[in-house]
Amino acid sequence: MTAAEMWRWDQGRLTYFTFDNIYLLAKAIVSLDGIKIEKSQDPLREELEKQTGLKFLPKKENYALLRNYGRVFETALLATTDEKRVFLATNLCKSIANNEITSDDYYAHIIRSLFFPFIPTKEYGKTDTYSFYFCAVVKLLIARYELPAQETSLSLNDIIEYIIANDCTGKEDISYYKNLTRKSIKIPKERERQIRESLIVICQFNFLKWIKDRIHLDILKGDSESIDAIKTICEPNLPILDDLTRSEKILKISQISTLESQINTTRRALGDILFIEGKRTRVTHLRVERSQALRSALFKTLPQPFKCNFCDCIPKNKYPWIDNILEIHHLMPLASNIYIDNKGTSLDDIVPICPNCHRSIHAYYRQWLNNTQQEDFVSKNEAKTVYENAKNEVIL
User: Fold this and answer.
1) Which of 99, 373, 323, 132 is nearest to 236 (CA)?
2) What is the pTM of this model?
3) Tens of pLDDT along 80-135?
4) Distant-in-sequence contacts of 57-64, Cβ < 8 A, 24+ apart
5) What is the full DSSP assignment across 253-314?
6) Which of 170, 226, 340, 367 could pair with 132 as two cysteines, CB 3.0-4.6 Å apart?
């Protein structure tokens, strides 16, 4: 079996791997934990659709939901079904449902723990070689970052010709990736699509972005603190799986006893500290807004002169000696990472905003959440509504 054949992903199911939907699925799956799956009935479909708002197709008589989505749940490390056909939520799933971990913690765990060929695809024995391709991708990005005058992003073709063609496993040292040479290799188009979708999924980890068909390491040059932190999550984490059943393997891989990412390197100004108030959800929000890759990508799509979305001012008219002082603001709930779709990292939910307005909207959020006794916005619509309410109250 070639490396390209080993790399499998549940193609076409990208919607179910966005973190907002992972969270909804986790809460629904926990409510169904321990239910017996009888061959004559499907107790999952109605409840999962009701609780998540997602569609689980096709809807056919005697066509169980797990036939198409069992592998989705297992690849996402959310649930499995044991030999007695009992539906089981994983430890990771319960942590997500209980708001104990953030999107960064979740995708850090996925990067370290998801190996290929993976159990949902096929059972593999004790002598098989497991490859942690996500770890390999992050290590190659770090290797490029640490070399002078190198592009710190990778195309799909780069990943195929550097990582897959060289049979990288992700277990090698970063120094190994600094010396890789490109090798020509042909793989099926279907496998290319699977690899591409899997890369888009892990780009929900806040220090990775998929923009214009390239995966970017979203760290400023010289930020050694962030690089050191990320190095901790690109070392494979494979527990001993010998003599375990399929479901036991899934449950063991999904154990998360400590927060995986341990990345607390968001640069904070005084206004940030007042805004986050020690809440991990707010740190997630700020990491999105500190993204240089997102900021650069957004302003490439906007007409000049750039205008603040909140107060409509054009900073260039006021400060002609400054090129662009606008920042980016994330409109989604505080715990939400940047949204992804089939094209990659979405720019639809970020807006340009001037520094004063940015600090003021954070203060408005803090006040609104305190008044409503909420930890976070309950939905995208609520977050956007609160933003528009604040915008309407601005005195110009």
Assistant:
1) 132
2) 0.88
3) 999 999 999 999 999 999 988 888 899 999 999 998 877 765 554 444 578 899 99
4) 64/37, 64/39
5) HT---S-S---------HHHHHHHTT-HHHHHHHHHHT-HHHHHHHHTTSPSSP--TTT---
6) 170
